[in-house]
Every structure is written in structure tokens, then in C-alpha cells.
């Protein structure tokens, strides 16, 4: 820029004196000086244009960097949220496991209570030696008969007098530990020892 203003000053000087002037060790005329100024002006315009282009590129680069920064921020936000979601999933899984354990415990308790209820409903009936009628002394059902502390004959007669069961219950040879039979309405039980009857399905 100093050179440019120096050239302007020299032009004024040349116009005033109409002679050659020494510029950087060279003698120049007015026309040469005007040509040199035009050349410098052209160079200056190129510099300004290059500067403007460089500024535009700089702004574009800033925009690119900013967009990349936003993408990075979004990725970091997603990553942080992923960790939170994973923690929530772990917590939910833990709660599910706890609930499963509670359900399992409740199922065991229910099964235990149900078993006790079935046991009460099918409480064994012990009958001493003697004759008994199904429907009055014992309810019609399917039973398991077993000796209750001894051994002896166990005979069942149908309502028409025919023999349905004839066996010996108890421990030892030629004796049955238990015997499953159907007691129908009107059947007669002939027991020579105490026998326990347990209702079954």
C-alpha cells in the first residue's frame, strides 16, 4: 500500500514537472508510471479477491466443523441415554427375578395348602373288625384298604350277596399290604381285623 501511495505522489510530481522520475533506481515517465499503477491496482484486486475467497472457505469450514460438532454432541447424547436405558433394563430384570422368586414361593405355599386340603378331604377311615354297609357306615367311593396294625381277612359282598373281594391284608407271606377296590352303594364289608380305608381318585 505504501508503494501505491508513493506512486500517486510521483504522478503528481511528474505532472507538475513533466520530467522522468527515479523509481527504485529506474527512470520512468508519466505513462510508464500510470501503467505501473494499473498493474499494481490489478494485483491489489487479485489479492482482495483471494482474501474474500479465503474468507468464504473459512466460513464454510467453520460451518462444517459446527455441523460435525452437533453430530458428535448428538452421538454423545445417544450414548449417554443408552447407558441410562441399560441401567433401567438391568433394574427391570432384577425386579422380574424378584417377582419370579415371589411367585415361586407363593406357588409352593399354594401347593402345600392344596395338598393339606386334599389330605383332609381324603382323611383315612379306620373300621374295626365287623360288618359294615356302604352308604351308611362308609361312603361309596374308590378306596385303598390296608391293615391297621394287624392282619386279617377282608371280604366285600355286593348288594346281591356275590363276593367282590376276598383277600388277607397285613404283613407277611400270602398277605396283601394294600388292596384297591370300588365300594358301591349297598355293598357289605366283612372285616376280621381293623382296616384303614383311604379314598383315592
Describe the protein in words.
- It is built from 2 helices and 10 strands; from the N terminus they run αββαββββββββ.
- The protein has 2 domains: 1-121, no CATH class; 125-200, Sandwich (Jelly Rolls).
- Helix 1 packs antiparallel against helix 2 (30-121).
- The protein has a 4-stranded antiparallel sheet with strand order 3-10-5-8, with no helix packed on it. It has a 4-stranded antiparallel sheet with strand order 4-9-6-7, with no helix packed on it. Strands 1-2 form a two-stranded antiparallel ribbon.
- By secondary structure, it is an alpha+beta fold.
- The chain is rod-shaped, with a radius of gyration of 59 Å.
- The two termini are 117 Å apart.
Q: Estimate the helix proportion, in percent.
A: 40-55%
Order of helices and strands: HEEHEEEEEEEE
Q: How many separate structural domains?
A: 2
Extract low-pLDDT stretches: none
**Between the first and last Cα atoms, what is the distance in angstroms?**
117 Å
- Please identify the oligomeric state: single chain
Number of strands: 10
- Major sheet summary line: 4 strands, antiparallel
Secondary-structure map with pairings?
Elements: H1 2-17, E1 21-23, E2 26-28, H2 30-121, E3 125-127, E4 130-133, E5 141-147, E6 152-157, E7 163-169, E8 179-183, E9 188-191, E10 195-200
Antiparallel strand pairs: 1-2, 3-10, 4-9, 5-8, 5-10, 6-7, 6-9
Keywords:
alpha+beta, Jelly Rolls, four-stranded antiparallel beta sheet, 54% helix
Give the structure's gist in a few sentences.
The protein is an alpha+beta fold and 201 residues long. The protein has helices at 2-17, 30-121, and strands spanning 21-23, 26-28, 125-127, 130-133, 141-147, 152-157, 163-169, 179-183, 188-191, 195-200.
Amino acid at each position: 500500500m505504501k508503494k501505491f501511495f508513493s506512486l500517486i505522489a510521483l504522478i503528481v510530481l511528474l505532472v507538475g514537472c513533466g520530467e522522468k522520475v527515479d523509481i527504485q533506481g529506474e527512470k520512468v515517465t508519466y505513462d510508464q508510471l500510470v501503467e505501473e499503477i494499473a498493474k499494481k491496482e490489478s494485483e491489489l484486486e487479485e489479492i482482495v479477491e483471494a482474501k474474500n475467497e479465503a474468507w468464504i472457505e473459512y466460513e464454510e469450514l467453520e460451518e462444517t466443523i459446527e455441523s460435525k460438532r452437533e453430530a458428535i454432541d448428538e452421538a454423545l447424547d445417544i450414548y449417554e441415554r443408552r447407558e441410562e436405558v441399560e441401567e433401567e433394563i438391568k433394574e427391570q430384570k432384577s425386579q422380574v427375578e424378584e417377582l419370579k422368586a415371589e411367585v415361586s414361593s407363593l406357588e409352593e405355599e399354594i401347593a402345600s395348602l392344596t395338598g393339606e386340603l386334599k389330605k383332609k378331604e381324603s382323611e383315612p377311615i379306620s373300621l374295626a373288625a365287623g360288618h359294615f354297609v356302604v352308604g351308611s357306615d362308609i361312603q361309596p367311593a374308590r378306596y385303598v384298604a390296608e391293615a391297621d396294625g394287624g392282619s386279617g381277612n377282608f371280604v366285600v359282598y355286593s348288594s346281591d350277596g356275590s363276593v367282590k373281594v376276598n383277600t388277607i391284608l397285613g404283613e407277611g407271606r400270602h398277605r396283601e399290604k394294600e388292596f384297591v377296590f370300588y365300594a358301591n352303594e349297598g355293598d357289605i364289608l366283612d372285616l376280621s381285623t381293623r382296616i384303614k380305608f383311604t379314598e383315592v381318585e
